[in-house]
Amino acid sequence: MKIQIFDPPMCCSTGLCGPGVDPALVEFAANLDWLKRQGIEIERYNLTQQTAAFVNNEPVCQLLKIEGNNCLPIVLMDGKVAFKGIYPDKQSLAKLVGVELASGSSSLKFTVETTGSPASGCCSKE
Q1: Which of 3.90.850.10, 2.120.10.90, 1.10.730.10, 3.40.30.10 is the CATH number of 2-101?
Q2: For the whole model, what pTM was predicted?
Q3: pLDDT tens digits, residue range 47-76?
Q4: 95 φ/ψ angles, rounded to the nearest 5 degrees
C-alpha cells in the first residue's frame, strides 16, 4: 500500500519554515509520520523542487492540466486519486488505508507563534 502526496509550490512540506507556520501542514506531516509507523509507504513531492514527479504521473498531470494548481495538494492511494485540494485529517487517512484509530486518538492541538522576521526563515534567498 502506497500513498503519494503532491504538494503545491512551497519551501518545505513540514510548514515549519518561513515567516508564518501553517498548523495544517504541521498536523498533516505528523499524520503522515503516524501512517509510516502503521507500515504504509509514503512518498511526498513538492512542485517547486520535484517538478518531474508531477509531469511523469498521469493522474496528477491530467488534474493539473484541467484544474491548474487549485487541485493541489493531490493525495494518491496506490496510484488513484483519493483527495485533491485538501490535506485530509487523520481520521480520513486512517479510513483510506483501513487502519482503525485507537480510542482517544485525535488530531494535534497546538498554538503556533512566530518570533523571527520574514527574512529569517529557511526560505530566505541569502
Answers
A1: 3.40.30.10
A2: 0.78
A3: 989 999 999 999 999 999 999 999 999 999
A4: -65, -40
